[in-house]
Amino acid sequence: MPIRSPFHERVAPYCTSYTWKDWAGYYAVSHYGETHLPEYWAFRESCAITDITPLFKYVIQGKDAARLLSRMAVRGFAKMQIGRVAYTCWCDANGKVIDDGTVSRLGEDHFFVTAAEPTLSWMSRLSRGFDVEIADVSEQTGALSLQGPTSRDVLKQCSDANLGRLKFFQTTSARLDGIDVQISRTGYSGDLGYELWCDAQDSLRVWDAVMAVGRDYGIQPAGIEALDMVRIEAGFIMLGVDYYSAPHVTIDARRSSPYEIGLDWCVRLDRGAFMGQEALRAEAARGSEWKMIGLEADWLELERLYESYHLPPALAPAACRQSVPLYSGGKFVGQVTSTVWSPLLKRYISLASVKAQYGKLGTKLKLEHTAFYERRTVTATVVERPFFDPERKRAP
Amino acid sequence: MAMTYDAIVVGAGHNGLTCAAYLGKAGRKVLVLERRHAIGGATVSEEIHPGFTFSSCSYVVSLLRPQIIRELELSKHGLEIMPLDWTFSPFEDGTSLLRGPDPEMNRRNIARFSRRDAERYPLFGQAMSELGRMMKPIIESPVPEPSKLTPSTLYELLRMSKQFKGMGEESLAANFKMMTMSAVDFLSEWFESERLIGPMSVSGIIGTFLGIRSPGTAYVLLHHYMGEIDGAFRAWGLQKGGTGGVAEAIARSARSFGVEIKTNCPVDKILMTAGVARGVVLENGDEYHAKAVVSGADPHRTFLGMVGEERLDEDFTKQIKRFKMRGSSGKVNLALDSLPVFPGLDPDSPALKADITIAPNIDFLERAYDDAKYGRFSREPFMDCVIPSLSDPSVAPPGKHVMSIFVQYAPYNLKEGPADWENQREAFGDAVIDTLERFSPGIKDRILHRHVLTPLDLEQTYGLTEGNIFHGELSLEQLAFMRPAAGWARYQTPIEKLWLCGSGAHPGGGIMAAPGQLCANTMLKARAV
Predict the structure, then answer these.
(1) Which CATH number, 3.40.50.2300, 3.90.1150.10, 3.90.249.10, 3.50.50.60, labels domain B4-43+64-79+241-324+483-525?
(2) How many domains does chain A have?
(3) Of A389, A191, A195, A369, which Cα lies nearest the Cα of A297?
(4) N or C: which end of chain A has fewer CB within 10 A?
(5) Phi, psi at residue A203, to the nearest 5°?
(6) Cα separation, A170 vs A185, whole angstroms
(7) Half-sphere exposure of A262 (CA within 13 A, CB side)
(8) Full 3-state SS string of B136-203
(9) Is residue A315 within 8 angstroms of chain B, CB to CB?
(10) Domain range holding A95?
(11) pLDDT tens by residue, A99-125
């Protein structure tokens, strides 16, 4: 049975739908009200607030902290500036991804790491011989995500952080209603947004302070369902949905390298030794088998498909995490892993894994689609990711 | 020597811009000339009170064709439509009815007034969606011309009639009733409670000079169900930053295709040589030449104004003069110091984000029409309100709100004549606020600024003849192959090389952009540019 997050007392009364999910052992709201759509729109038009405490959180301290992380992750941290945040992933010795998360440099020898899966044991194993201390602060740290165009106004009103100077993927300590918090300009929405980290004991006061000023800026508690929609629009992958953690699966075909899940841009091969380096170097030389792509279904064709049953198009109003096969010339060439009808973009978009030769922009594939019990296909085109990338996300 | 274009579009309303964008996308050299300082026509956002952005005229985006959104890449150019899928109807006794996307909630809420209606409600929606699905192809393509029996017309008629084949006898009957009955009569066949019939019937009269008991008003109800089925999934909604953002997005798309847009360029006349349009002349005498001229203005302004009766065939002139404009509505925009309250409503309720319909019962609505019939504005008008700042805080300062109130009836032709609107504007505004106060006590004290638009203002400021928001009433005799005149429903006009792309052309008004798109496609297909 899941446990309650430190924000539960505040979150629960808003959750009039009584729909909860289990997120890493915590109760997490699926959607708050009648539907998840007002929460989706808050992400894009005002400010959505989400309890992200279930993330795994670690503090790495000591003079070898940067060295340890550089050995674990696919990029180096020696030259990373204090106050910067990096999105990265880490691999096993075969160059297959274990997890992805963020690394913040809070001081010369002081880092803060988030992960989707428990990572303490893995980091400890790698740290033998390094002068570091690793603390699992997952339970002691409350975390809130504020995402959307008015998120900055909300935080400006309730904290002393200099947000005008906080650039995309930077972090700063700040005071919020007299409480020490860490604010980073990061998030899972692909929009302007911030994540707040605080002592779990201060959680309720942080929530209250943010909500009190948020009211004037259209703040809206948002659950996992709305979050899932915006992260697909942003083109962000999800562990356990778009790829699987290498140690947690039994067959190699389920394991992916960073190159195969669209994280090539994270990998820095030519530096000191790191986990998976040799395997990745070899893969970079020979080319990868799979490729993560953005896909858009041909809407008019989809309409015609439904029309052939005298039905209007019927799509789930929420994101779909069920994998769906893709074909080319009648041959199976990959699968869609996350799909959503984007109410904002008016496009039916997916993240998909395909055999590399089918991953070129503009390639037309056939996407399986079940309409009125029958499995049919519609044309889908490989398109650019992210699907949605507003200027305000990076704007000063 | 004047510049020469492939096409000149007169008016940068959403249809003119859409037409220009499609022509530009096809590689044509296009110039759009706008009379006002701002683009958008009635699709406009204006900061009328400091810090408050009003969607002065058109306030909801209805049925904007999803195909247009994709083909012109409007999302990339800033289109963001937040759906408006709740309807809140307060009543004077403090009760209210909230309807939305949750069928169980609808059933619960309607059952407080009638259990039978509550059960019928989803069936009604289903029947309407079924009818709407059959009407969809008609909206999506230019109408066939029944008087000209060419093979292609026959093919199109056949294609359209196929929609009706396989429609059961029951559906056919429902369809016929829908075409001929009044909104109230049609709804009364389904429902018994006025608390449901009243608010539902108003979608049959918006923008028309008809009452909810007038025959022919049932048809317009259907439009409300079209959004559900046209693939946009809830295409009714509010544009971020105000309605003007829709026009801005289309304009950006058009510019990306090389279209040139000039504001402060009022067109005086269409230039013609031997009956063929060859450009325009501005009020300042500047001339622009083009292979074709497209008018986004309404049929009256286009033909009786920019072409001129003297250059038109008498029969056609008569038809255009008879094309009913007669605006019947006004607009009141409020800047509010705080959120309005409605008795018994939780301030966090989604009801305030809804379409708020002041239409408490049938007699209230019919009395509102009575006033209009005799040339007065309704002393107790029907109102359709939205508070966009709740979903989109960018349109008002923090904690403050804007409220947009569509008001019917406000007849253009007052008993004292249209010019008397200058004297009656404030009294009209007072009638609106006094009526609203009865449903939302205390709203008067929340008002920071009041912006009243009469039909005369709509005509003078935004160029809508007689203040008609649809460029001509959307009544049955003015739709499809009758829009704007029999024989001229395919965007072509009796003037060679002059085309019509505004809401006065098929399929009509609302921020649908279909006339603009269909006009451009028709021109391209005919190799007219």
Answers:
(1) 3.50.50.60
(2) 3
(3) A369
(4) N
(5) -50, -50
(6) 6
(7) 20
(8) HHHHHCCCCCCCCCCHHHHHHHHHHHHHHCCCCHHHHHHHHHHHHCEHHHHHHCCCCCHHHHHHHHHH
(9) yes
(10) 57-125
(11) 999 999 999 999 999 999 999 999 999
Shared-domain flag, residues A205 and A353: no
B73: nearest CA partner in chain A: A345
Report in angstroms the alpha-carbon separations of B491 from A197, A367, B168, B317: 60, 38, 34, 16
In this structure, are A143 and A203 located in the same domain? Answer: yes
Per-residue pLDDT tens digits for A136-171 = 999 999 999 999 999 999 999 999 999 999 999 999
* Joined tokens for residue B77: 């150019």
pLDDT > 80? residue B161: no
Q: For the whole model, what pTM was predicted?
A: 0.89
> Is position A171 within any domain?
yes
Same domain, yes or no: A166 and A185: yes
Is A262 a domain residue? no
Whole-number Å distance between alpha carbons of B355 and B333: 15
E strand residue ranges, B221-376? 237-239, 260-262, 267-273, 276-282, 287-295, 329-336, 355-358
Residue range A280-294: mean pLDDT, rounded: 98
Q: Is A182 helix (H, G, I), strand (E, B) or coil?
A: strand
A221 Cα to chain B: minimum distance (Å) = 12
Q: Do A216 and B393 touch (CB under 8 A)?
A: yes
> A157 and A170 share a domain?
yes
Type of residue found at A185: R
Interface test with B, best of A346, A381, A392 (most B CBs within 10 A): A346
B71 to chain A, closest Cα gap in Å: 11
One domain for residues A181 and A81? no
Question: What's the distance, CA A307 to chain centroid?
Answer: 36
| pLDDT tops 50 at residue B1 | no
* pLDDT of A39 over the 60 cut: yes
A51 and A145 together in one domain: yes
- The torsion angles phi and psi of A199, rounded to 5 degrees, stand at -65, 135
Q: CA-to-CA distance for B78 and B13, rounded, in angstroms?
A: 17
Provide, as residue numbers in chain B, all residues whose Cβ is less than 8 Å from the Cβ of A153.
398
| Extents of the domains making up chain B | 4-43+64-79+241-324+483-525, 104-229
Distance separating alpha carbons of residues A162 and A383, to the nearest angstrom: 37
pLDDT in tens, B216-230: 888 878 766 665 544
Dump pLDDT digits (tens) for B145-159: 766 667 776 677 666
Q: Locate A181 and state its tokens.
A: 């918090």
CB contact A45 to B (< 8 Å): yes
Mean pLDDT of B389-406: 95
Tokens of A357: 């030769």
